Amino acid sequence: MEHNEQVCLQICDLSKQFTIYNSGKTIHACQHVSLTLNKGEFIGITGKSGSGKSTILKGIYRTNLPQTGEIWYASEKYGWIDLCQATERQILYLRRYEIGYVSQFLQLMPRTTARQIVENAVLERGGKAEEARREAEAILLHFELDDSLWDTYPNTFSGGEKLRLNIASAMVKHPRLLLLDEPTASLDQHSKRKVRDLIELLKQEGTTMLGIFHDLEFMENLCDRRYNMQSGAMDA
């Protein structure tokens, strides 16, 4: 397959289904989805819950594998690589250095404080200890996470605090490709503004982003293109 040098990600005829074995029911999460995402572009996907939006992001991040289709990504290290066929070692490298994922749910690490979670994200991308400390403090301040919480374990945080921490740890890595799964789901308007500020900054830096949203107002004048998912199919 030939690839345009301006393209960051190309999804070709992606289909994914899940089988509920105790009932024998098959759910068609996404069907024949094709999408091209240019470098530095921000595409937003809307649609009702259960329409297949998250399945696309999880396929890119390789949380799950599709039954059919290809997901071509222009990697800085590997060149053009089909994420559906990439090895586990390649996927781990890409997650560490090139592809970020913001989920509305924080994956808690045992005995790791909020500050350490963000610092570890900087260290993972190759930053030094002092750089990690400085950048972690800056982004935690940006999201107005109370400094009394920085050195505590986030299992006691509210939903909004966990989401802000999750966004902070993903954005501080400045990934080449950032996947956003309902990044403003449990945030108030002030916190949404903070998220928007950083998304705009990442756009200026050239980060390519693909996000799914229910908040249409948040997307206004932010996304370069918008698509809608209905029953696993995508419409422009």
Give me the count of strands: 10
What is the CATH level 1 assignment?
Alpha Beta
CATH architecture, by name, is 3-Layer(aba) Sandwich
Average pLDDT level: 88
Rounded Rg: 18 Å
Ranges where pLDDT stays below 50 over 5 or more residues in a row are: none
Element-by-element helix/strand order: EEEHEEHEHHHEHEHEE
Q: Tell me the structural class.
A: alpha/beta
Number of helices: 7
User: What is the number of independent domains?
Assistant: 1
User: Share of helix among residues?
Assistant: 25-40%
CATH names the topology as Rossmann fold
Shape: globular
What separation lies between the terminal Cα atoms? 24 Å
Largest sheet: 6 strands, mixed
Please indicate the percent range of residues in DSSP E strands (runs of 2 or more).
25-35%
- Widest sheet, order of strands: 6-7-8-3-9-10
Spell out the CATH superfamily: P-loop containing nucleotide triphosphate hydrolases
Keywords: ATP-binding, Nucleotide-binding
Domain ABC transporter: 9-236
GO molecular function: ATP binding; ATP hydrolysis activity
InterPro entries: AAA+_ATPase, ABC_transporter-like_ATP-bd, P-loop_NTPase
